Recover the amino acids of this structure.
């Protein structure tokens, strides 16, 4: 009876430990144990290196800058989307997600090609850019243009939730609208904001694409490029990489802890008064012009310019010649889709891996979400925490751990160098998506469903098939799609763990920049993003259907 | 009620695991597991160059019927993979774009000697006298320039310190390009003032970004005007494709960077690996090397629209025990940069 009672927990726990726990332990072990004895040598050597302090400083500063910049971009956007006539234009949200879905290294390559000497800017305007783009502010700008959608969506949702009663109360009792805003709305927003900002910070620390392309160019080294460097540059130094991974891991854990403290202290029940936005649609002309202008500006900078570079480069016949219609060709796209070519194979591999990984992740996520439920008990909290680990720990730490763990000499069998390795890696990295989506779908269910289950259900399978799956289907599917999209573009892990002879679209693009044909790489990037956008539209349509059915 | 839910979950989980297990059996590609598949598969870790490596792979498969699992990457990533896989090695043959790294593998006893069929026809300067590895091809490092922006040029290495060249020069990053380390090593060993030259470049706003292809791209798109330590075959290839670039070798001499292949000590398919090395040194493969604008290890092979080895002014370089000295070179460079 006891075994039976604990079976779900034990099964899920063992699964998660194999997936996420073991790799982290492998990193710890590799760093601290040399020939069976405890040693802090490699960690100390890394810490004594002068460059490490500088790198750490670079990473942390970059994180702060990016938080500041994304806030400047996202807060006005969130206000515009909740307070002006644009409040009803929900399709804008899909457009705003595109920058976030663009592989960051592609976005920054687009910017580099646009702004460099003799780049597209100079070709279009026949003059040099009036400022130096290749600097730390430029890098912060590119990264913010990639990450702002994340902050924007969180702020927008928070604002939508506090509309209604709070607004009305301030209207009745308060004075000046701006003072109302500062004294009532901002404090209420702070909890959501702090959470989003810290996630932005961690995402900045974990980002590989922009530092690897733009950062390298301006000599701005950060943690993630250093770790990747120790693993992939001659002379190889794996223990330095694991030591750095541990430092990065500690930094992220501290940040996560701070975030928890803050959000616990400053969370207000804003959900209570459910009077949905009494939005006034009578905006002055000035507000209208400003809103539209601002939205267009942000879209132009975050989508227009990078995609202009990407598409133009993918169409160029001779890259050394200036832009002109005679210098354009579709040949890179036809080569991409030639049957039997390595590019088509890479694309199919990506789709395969992403499909299998997201399906398994959705299943595991579903089980975890059902078990964790409202996370009131200790085992539930523990599982919840482990399953969300890869949200707060940069992917590269897991990847290093996965490589070390699956190559351990004592393992009786290993999946290393098989197609299961990338699949497993994607599952580990993106499990939080499916867990969170299913959990949020679960949290919207009314308590009465549990009660009617208990009263009417004949057996567990009926509950599963007739109740949970239909009700949670939308959430699971949304999580599935999200995992699929992100797996499709995953780069830093794929670079390190793919078996021989296998490429994915992301590594294909990267290797085109490293050794091959940039135009082909850009063509592949464009196709991948196109696929992604189609997926996002599908999610959106499904969610809308679900909403209309619920009402 | 709670118990029902939990049992349901346990059931789902078991199904998932079972499905996963079934999937493993079905999806397992016979090629990915080469411990069991005998002599018909070899695994090659090859540091480029893209295109040529694939052509050689196809020709080898057609001739011998042995399937090649190829992992294509940079020298650094291959070394790191070998290190990570030390406990269960999978690679049979390794091809690196840097002889000192090969020396490093040899000194760690990770290679095994093999007297190849055509071994004698291969340039002995690029190969190991004890036959642990063969330099089957080589790139010469020159100065690539954008022909739209520069009409003619014959500057020597130290001329790029002149104010005239300020902000117009780029160089592949030695931390990611093995040939750039070879170049720095050769230049600073052959010239007493070698490091001064390099320092003057850096002071003259030298752009150091990315590996060979990336720095050549900066010149193709007109961002910079010249690449120092440019890999020549890449430039010839781009020129052949119609890009406005060309290359020359400065008079005072340059460095030849050989690409070497060897058999790993842990090779599981030794016969297949030996056949691959034999094929790499055969006239067929050497011809393919030449067609890719690369210098073949066999000097008798006819070249494709590029200067021969004896037409390129070279600096004297001693590759023996170069690994340690190259690490010093790299550290020296990163400390100055």
């Amino acid at each position: 009876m006891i075994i039976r009672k604990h079976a779900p927990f034990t099964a899920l726990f063992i699964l998660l430990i194999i997936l996420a726990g073991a790799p982290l332990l492998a990193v710890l072990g590799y760093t601290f144990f040399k020939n069976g004895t405890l040693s802090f040598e490699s960690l100390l050597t890394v810490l004594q290196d002068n460059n490490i302090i500088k790198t750490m400083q670079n990473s942390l500063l970059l994180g702060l800058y990016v938080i500041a910049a994304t806030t400047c971009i996202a807060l006005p956007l969130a206000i515009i989307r909740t307070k002006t006539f644009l409040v009803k234009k929900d399709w804008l949200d899909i457009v705003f997600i595109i920058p976030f879905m663009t592989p960051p290294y592609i976005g920054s390559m687009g910017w580099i090609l646009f702004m460099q000497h003799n780049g597209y800017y100079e070709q279009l305007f026949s003059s040099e850019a009036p400022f130096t783009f290749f600097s730390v502010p430029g890098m912060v700008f590119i990264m913010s243009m990639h990450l702002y959608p994340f902050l924007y969506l969180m702020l927008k949702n928070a604002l939508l939730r506090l509309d209604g009663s709070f607004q009305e109360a301030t209207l009745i009792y308060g004075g000046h609208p701006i003072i109302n805003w500062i004294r009532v709305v901002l404090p209420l927003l702070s909890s959501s904001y702090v959470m989003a900002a810290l996630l932005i910070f961690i995402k900045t620390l974990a980002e590989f694409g922009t530092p690897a392309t733009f950062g390298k160019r301006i000599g701005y080294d950060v943690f993630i490029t250093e770790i990747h460097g120790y693993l992939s540059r001659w002379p190889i130094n794996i223990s330095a990489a694991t030591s750095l991974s541990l430092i990065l891991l500690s930094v992220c854990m501290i940040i996560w802890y701070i975030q928890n403290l803050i959000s616990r202290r400053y969370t207000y029940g804003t959900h209570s008064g459910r009077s949905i936005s009494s939005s006034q649609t009578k905006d002055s002309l000035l507000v209208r012009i400003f809103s539209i202008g601002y939205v267009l500006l942000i879209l132009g900078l975050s989508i227009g310019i990078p995609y202009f570079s990407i598409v133009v480069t993918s169409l160029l016949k001779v890259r050394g010649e200036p832009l002109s219609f005679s210098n354009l060709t579709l040949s890179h796209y036809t080569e991409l889709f030639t049957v039997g070519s390595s590019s088509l194979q890479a694309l199919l591999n990506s789709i395969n891996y992403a499909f299998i990984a997201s399906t398994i992740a959705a299943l595991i996520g579903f089980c975890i979400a059902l078990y964790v439920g409202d996370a009131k008990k200790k085992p539930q909290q523990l599982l919840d925490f482990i399953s969300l680990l890869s949200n707060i720990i940069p992917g590269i730490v897991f990847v290093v751990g996965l490589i070390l763990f699956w190559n351990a000499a004592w393992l009786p069998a290993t999946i290393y160098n098989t197609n299961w390795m990338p699949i497993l890696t994607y599952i580990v990295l993106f499990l939080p998506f499916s867990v969170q989506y299913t959990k949020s779908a679960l949290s919207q269910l009314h308590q009465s469903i549990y009660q009617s289950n208990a009263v009417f259900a004949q057996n567990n399978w009926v509950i599963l098939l007739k109740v949970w799956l239909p009700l949670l289907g939308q959430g699971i599917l949304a999580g599935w799609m999200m995992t699929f999209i992100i797996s499709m573009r995953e780069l830093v892990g794929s670079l390190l763990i793919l078996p021989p002879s296998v490429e994915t679209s992301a590594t294909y693009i990267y290797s085109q920049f490293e050794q091959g044909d940039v135009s082909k790489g850009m063509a592949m990037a464009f196709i991948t993003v196109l696929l992604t956008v189609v997926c996002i539209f599908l999610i959106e349509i499904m969610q809308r259907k679900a909403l209309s059915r619920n009402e | 009620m709670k118990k029902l839910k939990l049992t349901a979950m346990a059931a789902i989980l078991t199904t998932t695991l079972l499905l996963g297990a079934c999937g493993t059996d079905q999806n397992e590609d016979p090629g990915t597991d080469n411990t069991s598949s005998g002599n018909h598969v070899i695994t090659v870790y090859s540091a480029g160059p893209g295109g040529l490596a694939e052509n050689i792979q196809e020709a080898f498969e057609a001739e011998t019927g042995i399937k090649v699992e190829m992992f294509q990457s940079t020298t650094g990533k291959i070394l790191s993979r070998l290190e990570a896989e030390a406990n269960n090695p999978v690679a049979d043959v390794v091809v690196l774009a840097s002889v000192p790294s090969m020396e490093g593998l040899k000194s760690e006893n990770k290679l095994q000697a093999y007297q190849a069929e055509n071994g004698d026809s291969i340039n002995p300067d690029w190969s190991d006298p004890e036959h642990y590895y063969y330099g089957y091809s080589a790139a010469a490092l020159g100065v690539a320039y954008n022909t739209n922006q520069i009409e003619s040029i014959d500057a020597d290495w130290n001329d790029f310190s002149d104010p005239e060249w300020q902000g117009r020069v780029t160089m592949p990053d030695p931390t990611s390009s093995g040939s750039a380390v070879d170049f720095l090593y050769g230049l600073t060993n052959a010239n007493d003032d070698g490091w001064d030259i390099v320092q003057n470049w850096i002071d003259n706003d030298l752009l150091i970004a990315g590996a060979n292809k990336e720095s050549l791209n900066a010149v193709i798109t007109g961002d910079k005007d010249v690449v120092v330590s440019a890999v020549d075959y890449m430039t010839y290839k781009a020129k052949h494709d119609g890009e406005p670039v060309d290359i020359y070798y400065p008079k005072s001499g340059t460095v030849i960077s050989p690409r070497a292949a060897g058999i790993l000590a842990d090779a599981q398919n030794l016969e297949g690996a030996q056949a691959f090395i034999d094929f790499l040194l055969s006239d067929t493969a050497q011809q393919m090397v030449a067609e890719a604008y690369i210098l073949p290890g066999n000097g008798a092979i006819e070249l494709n629209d590029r200067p021969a080895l004896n037409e390129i002014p070279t600096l004297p370089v001693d590759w023996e025990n170069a690994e340690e000295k190259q690490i010093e070179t790299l550290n020296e460079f990163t400390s100055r940069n």
Q: What stands out?
A: The first strand of chain A starts at residue 33 and ends at 34. Confidence is low (pLDDT under 50) at residues 271-275 of chain A.
